[in-house]
Write a structure and sequence with these properties.
By secondary structure, the chain is mainly alpha-helical. The protein has one domain. Helices cover 58% and strands 6% of the residues. The strands form 3 sheets. It has a two-stranded antiparallel sheet. A two-stranded antiparallel ribbon has the order 3-4. It is globular and about 55 Å long.
Amino acid sequence: MLVASIPSPAHGTLDLGPIPLHMYGLLLAVGVVAGAIIGSRRWSARGHPRKEFDDVIIVVVVCGVVGARLYHVATDYQLYTHDWLRAFEVWRGGLSIWGVIIGGIAGLYFSCRARGYDSLAMMDAIVPGLLVAQAIGRWGNYFNQELFGAPTKLPWALQIAPSHRPKGYTQYATFHPTFLYESIYCIVLAGLALWVERHWRLRRGQLVALYLSSYCFGRFWFEQLRIDPAHIVAGLRVNSWTEIAACLGGLVWFWWLRRGTPAQIGAQKAPPASSATHAKS
């Protein structure tokens, strides 16, 4: 017997007079702004000009969104074979986090390289904000009633309208709210990243590697709960294999970076008096 459940919104838009705002896109925008603010402040706290972050973040966001859509369309191309124009309807969902990561990292690396900025240090500065952005953006799936998990009658089960239930599950009314699980997990990881950064002597880039391994570890289990159509390879969803590879890759990268340059946590310190005197002479 169902004790309680989470209701889903009747529609995924917020009507402001004649202008409908798609909650999926709105939440993504809110997440991007929140993540950018956190990343910018962290970059400035390390003694870097905020302009450097502003120069790069626009490129990162654009490359991340483009990569997210391309990855989704490439891995779920069957959804668009009969109506290819739907591939451009981003507000209806379909932005893969792996496309965001791949596209965003590529954009950040080449943008930093062109300007002479420290790409690893900037990635480290972005990590907590990225996790907060992911936590906020996941609520877009809630408004679209998508990417939920298997049927369940747990007190936090998510109600899904019949029109949004996949084939074979139309007789069920409530499902695992995987969007909620991942959102909470990302907030926990953001706090954990800040804690580790303050208590461990990390090297440049190790926070990024830690993000990849820890996020992918949790995401793998959330992926196993999902019942939306997906390509299966050797018994696992394609994204599951991506998560396994990224998790292991993150661990190897974390280990490989252990002899690198120490990460700069606080603002840059002023040079010693002797150095300053020598420079003046």
